[in-house]
Amino acid sequence: MGENIAKLILRITVGGMMLFHGIHKAVHGIGFIKGMLKSHGIPEMLAYGVYAGEILAPLFLIIGWRSRVWAAVIALNMAGALYLAHAGDFLKLGAHGAWAVELPMFYLLSAVAIVLLGSGKYAVIRD
Predict the structure, then answer these.
(1) Cα 34 to Cα 43: distance, rounded to the nearest angstrom
(2) Gap between the Cα atoms of 117 and 127, Å rounded
(3) Is residue 71 a contact partner of residue 57, using CB atoms and an 8 Å limit?
(4) Environment class of residue 127 by beta-carbon count within 10 Å: exposed (0-12), middle (13-18) or buried (19+)?
């Protein structure tokens, strides 16, 4: 039972926290992401994928519908964010002495953990 509760807590934590990032982008737009993509020679249209990675995926992760798939979407989203926005930050310290890529790495690695663990017992569809 404890293992399933832990999986639920992990899903709710990652999904819930990531959802706030998605809501912010839904309210304030993704122009800055389009700019980053353009500067890397990547089509700007791909910026709309952030809505899948930061709104849809978190919602489905929270309820436990195909958690492994949606966690993989979050992991890919975060890998993209690390590449586009934090490529030069891996060996840097950020505010208050924290690792500069601490938060995106938390999301990436936690999402990978969900991909490996699955949704657990407390999910709409267990995987």
Answers:
(1) 8
(2) 9
(3) yes
(4) middle
Check residue 66 and give its pLDDT: 96
- Residues 114, 49: Cα–Cα separation, whole Å: 20
What is the residue type of 74? I
Radius of gyration of the chain (CA): 15
Domain boundaries, the chain: 2-117
Report which residue type is found at 39: S
What is the rounded distance in angstroms from the CA atom of residue 9 to the CA atom of residue 77? 21
What number of other Cβ atoms are within 10 A of residue 113's Cβ?
14
Smallest CA-to-CA distance from 50 within 31, 68, 69 is with 31
**Global pTM exceeds 0.90:** yes
Give the whole-angstrom CA distance, residue 20 versus residue 37. 22
Residue 47 neighbours by CB distance under 10 Å: 22
Count of residues in the chain: 127
pLDDT of residue 90: 86
82-111 average pLDDT score: 91
